[in-house]
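Hey team,

Filing this mostly as a record. A colleague (T.K.) asked me to run one chain through the structure pipeline before their review meeting, and I want the input and output archived in the tracker in case anyone asks later how it was produced. No errors, nothing strange. Just documentation.

Input sequence:
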Amino acid sequence: MRGVRVGYTFSARADCVEESGIRKMLGLARPGAINLSIGEPNIEPPANVRAALKRAVDENRSTYGPSGGIPELREAIAAKLRQNWKEARKENVVVTVGASQALFAIAHIFYERGDEVLVPDPGFFLYGAHARIHGATPVAYRLPAENGHRPTEEDLKAKIRPKTRAIVINSPSNPTGMAFRKSDTKLVSDLARDHDLLVVSDEVYDELMFDRRHETFLCEAEKLVYINSFSKTYSTTGWRMGYAAAAEEVAKMLSKTTYHMLACPPTTTQYAALEALKPETDGFVKKMVQEFRERRDLMVKGLNAIDGFRCPNTDGTIYVFPSYKFKLSSADLAMKLIEFGVVTVPGFNFGELGEGHIRICLGARRADLEEALKRLGKAAEALK
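Output structure:
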């Protein structure tokens, strides 16, 4: 009410909601800065997909749809999944508003107060946040740089306890760009089977692989919820289209939960997503992978030429995750780099092992990446 000072008492759940460090850095960008913080490609979606979106609008495909997604799209997704999961059917698929909503819905239907959920470190901060919001405790499993940002059997076994309910996987990884090998998927799947754990596998960067094949958890893990998205593969981040795939009973529960969260995913963009799965877009994806491979090569070579930074080659994604020698926290370094006109994300946002790193997104023009390297070089000289 106007003129009346009131106080609000928020729920304990609301206190668990954390501000995104990535979004915070985005808001600090100054005029003329090169923004390498937000994780999205700077490439237009495929022409046929854009045309399909316009066509859906013109045909008034704007009514409510099923909570789990339109049947045509679910079947098309299932057909794609059958490359690795031969039994996949549309009944196993739920269309979501990006991978983020899928992750939240999974936490909602599986995590109980007192549970422990294994989350990657370094890893995307939503995994732990979603566990805390639902009363569970996130327990970080290590992806150390000296092991190529991949898990070790010793560490995973030490982290599994009687209260452990699930393990969250993200491969290829945001922020490290590294991907699991076949031995890693087998290790995790075997441990999950032995301890009756749910595997939540976030594979949204699966098609953005550069030098090796992607190893999926489909048909590897026994109790699995698989998550993917159209955002990165087809450069449609703002369209918010993703999906989850699981056993039919899990898909039904996810669909029911979706209704209570948002009634149904947007109908119009689902028809555009359906178009994206057609063979006509294969060439677009291949060109985008090649473009990001070349940007990765440019950034890795450029960073390693700057005294003070070390950047390993990545397996995929749209990120590099260099370490540095400067005697600054990652938060302080990121703020210092803003002074030189480059916006990055401090590594501490991704976990304890993220400290000592910054995340750089490759979603900028090559000319901007080259200029960013010059500015990073000047910053490194100033910090010596």
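Quick notes for T.K.: Residues 282-304 form the longest helix (23 residues). The mean pLDDT is 94.
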